[in-house]
Amino acid sequence: MMQNKFLYLIALIVLVLISCDSNRVYDTYKSVPNQWHKDSVVQFKFRAPDSTNTYNLFVNLRNNNNYPFNNLYLIVEMDFPNGRVIKDTLQYKMAKPNGELLGTGFTDIKESKLWYKEGVVFSESGEYQIKIQQAMRENGKVNGVINLKGITDVGFRIEHATSQKQ
Hints:
Layout: H1 2-19, E1 24-31, E2 35-37, E3 42-47, E4 55-63, E5 71-79, E6 85-93, E7 110-120, E8 127-134, E9 147-149, E10 151-160
Antiparallel strand pairs: 1-10, 2-9, 3-8, 4-7, 4-10, 5-6, 5-8
Protein name: Protein involved in gliding motility GldH
InterPro entries: Motility-assoc_lipoprot_GldH
Pfam family, one: GldH_lipo
């Protein structure tokens, strides 16, 4: 009987935490095994949420203390249902000047919510695809970092734009 009450309490806490995130439309992570190879593309497929509202898009990352840089370069591609492609090279700050990782979290794993696009309207119905690839280079070197250490998960998130929040 006591075990049932404990499970009920845990389920209630999880439900409350999930329901507090009312802006979320899509939020998924994929694990990066050991190191993120420069040719490894993390992909997310989703259906257009609706064509009348505006949305903000984010790249979410989880990294640990093995991450050796204070910034991060990503190539993010959005494939539209009609075949149109938008490709961006993005740079994010990942650590303070003293090397302390940015992001949230109490352990050595930090979670970062990184802006990708703001005020997006999904005017085409159908399936969209997001492709994310690391594009890190060391100073003074032409070739990119082949295996990027310290990134544990890559995610993609769609939120209702804050003006749309109920």
